[in-house]
Amino acid sequence: MEPLYKEYVLGLSYASYIFVTYLNYRQLRKLHEGRPKILTKLVTPEEFDRFTAYSIDKSKFLFLGDAFSQLQNTAVIYFNLLAWLWNVAGRWLSSAGYSGGSEISQGVIFFLLISVISSITALPFSLYNTFVIEARHGSKTLTIGSFFVSGIKGYLFGGAVGVPLIATFLYIVQWSGDRFYFYVWMFACLFQLVMVSLYPTLIQPLFHECKPLQDDELKGHIENLARRIGFPLGKIHVAPSDPNKHTNHGYSYFFGFSPNKHIAIFESTLKDTTRDEVCALLCHEFGHWKYNHVMKLFIIHQIHLFGIFYIFSHFINHSGLYRAFGFESKPALVGFMLFQYIFSPFEGLATFLTNALCRKQEFQADEFSKRHGYGESLRAGLVRLNKQDCSNLNLDSWYSTYHYSHPPLVDRLKGLVKTE
Ligand SMILES: [Zn+2]
């Protein structure tokens, strides 16, 4: 008897849907609890109510979005829609004159088809999110034109990166045979290194330009701080804030090759914050640098990636897996997607563990900033930037542990008080 892959994947997706919905429910319940004590002096009741109303709207909308994607997933799995799309891609190729079509070109068309279809099905949700929820709560000023322009821009960029990436992946698998996992992993590793080093210097400027920091007094403070810590400071830039980015981290970033590292501070980080608060936030980033956090995460990530490709290499030729989802051939790209379905519980566990490590690193970096005399300013700065983002200030612990790599604001504030 063949293993019941399809039943297993469907069952798994419902189990995970129920779990995630339960987390959403916990989060929604938490939002009705009122202002946490630690925020009493930092956030006014009016501000808190405003952020909470926004979070409640988003939280309710999440139930709808999740239910829709669960239905969509069920249809894709139950009706073998991936196999159908794969055949459509094949027919397009042969009608364009590529008879017998190569797996690489078919894989690329298949990837593009999936991306187009999923953007179309996601469109009503992202329209509602931007023009109803965001508009109701004020902060966003996107017009319908700029919404589509930025969407298409991101889409073209995704294609420009995704298509060569997938073609190379498939080429390596074909070329290297049984040991493909090693070569694919090497390629992924190199690609990430190149992206990390080139992104801020070559790619980011294509979208928006960095300016040098004008505020000489702030510059002096940052230079002093860097000297005290031994940070090899290069130039200090101001980067325009990305309007689409709604994050609870990333107030600044470092780039450039050693020995000197340049700093780019987001415009929004400088807005309304005091010089001490900016230094406190930067000192937190210096803490990450001092403890080699980025390197540690990178290494763990590479071990994880190697594990995935290695285990995948035991599934790639397993015809039963492909047959279970309606495939007659064994295309590597499809194999990798099906493998991810099967492997998702282990992936979930891995994400959970790396998130736990990230949270530990955040507390360490906060502690570092505090040790250099910025405890008070870091608290004020974090609160101010969270207000600016209209962040959810009342996160449920289960919800944030599962979804976020960064600790909730309230926990960070508590951590900063505790070590005083
Ligand atoms: Zn951090």
TrEMBL record:
<dbReference type="GO" id="GO:0071586">
    <property type="term" value="P:CAAX-box protein processing"/>
</dbReference>
<keyword id="KW-0472">Membrane</keyword>
<dbReference type="InterPro" id="IPR001915">
    <property type="entry name" value="Peptidase_M48"/>
</dbReference>
<keyword id="KW-0378">Hydrolase</keyword>
<dbReference type="InterPro" id="IPR032456">
    <property type="entry name" value="Peptidase_M48_N"/>
</dbReference>
<feature type="transmembrane region" description="Helical">
    <location>
        <begin position="106"/>
        <end position="133"/>
    </location>
</feature>
<feature type="transmembrane region" description="Helical">
    <location>
        <begin position="61"/>
        <end position="86"/>
    </location>
</feature>
<dbReference type="Pfam" id="PF16491">
    <property type="entry name" value="Peptidase_M48_N"/>
</dbReference>
<feature type="binding site">
    <location>
        <position position="362"/>
    </location>
    <ligand>
        <name>Zn(2+)</name>
    </ligand>
</feature>
<feature type="transmembrane region" description="Helical">
    <location>
        <begin position="154"/>
        <end position="174"/>
    </location>
</feature>
<dbReference type="GO" id="GO:0005789">
    <property type="term" value="C:endoplasmic reticulum membrane"/>
</dbReference>
<dbReference type="GO" id="GO:0046872">
    <property type="term" value="F:metal ion binding"/>
</dbReference>
<keyword id="KW-0645">Protease</keyword>
<keyword id="KW-1133">Transmembrane helix</keyword>
<dbReference type="GO" id="GO:0004222">
    <property type="term" value="F:metalloendopeptidase activity"/>
</dbReference>
<feature type="domain" description="CAAX prenyl protease 1 N-terminal">
    <location>
        <begin position="25"/>
        <end position="208"/>
    </location>
</feature>
<keyword id="KW-0812">Transmembrane</keyword>
<feature type="binding site">
    <location>
        <position position="284"/>
    </location>
    <ligand>
        <name>Zn(2+)</name>
    </ligand>
</feature>
<dbReference type="Pfam" id="PF01435">
    <property type="entry name" value="Peptidase_M48"/>
</dbReference>
<feature type="binding site">
    <location>
        <position position="288"/>
    </location>
    <ligand>
        <name>Zn(2+)</name>
    </ligand>
</feature>
<comment type="similarity">
    <text>Belongs to the peptidase M48A family.</text>
</comment>
<feature type="domain" description="Peptidase M48">
    <location>
        <begin position="212"/>
        <end position="418"/>
    </location>
</feature>
<keyword id="KW-0482">Metalloprotease</keyword>
<dbReference type="InterPro" id="IPR027057">
    <property type="entry name" value="CAXX_Prtase_1"/>
</dbReference>
<keyword id="KW-0256">Endoplasmic reticulum</keyword>
<protein>
    <recommendedName>
        <fullName>CAAX prenyl protease</fullName>
        <ecNumber>3.4.24.84</ecNumber>
    </recommendedName>
</protein>
<feature type="transmembrane region" description="Helical">
    <location>
        <begin position="332"/>
        <end position="353"/>
    </location>
</feature>
<feature type="active site">
    <location>
        <position position="285"/>
    </location>
</feature>
<comment type="function">
    <text>Proteolytically removes the C-terminal three residues of farnesylated proteins.</text>
</comment>
<feature type="transmembrane region" description="Helical">
    <location>
        <begin position="180"/>
        <end position="199"/>
    </location>
</feature>
<keyword id="KW-0479">Metal-binding</keyword>
<keyword id="KW-0862">Zinc</keyword>
<feature type="active site" description="Proton donor">
    <location>
        <position position="366"/>
    </location>
</feature>
<feature type="transmembrane region" description="Helical">
    <location>
        <begin position="294"/>
        <end position="312"/>
    </location>
</feature>
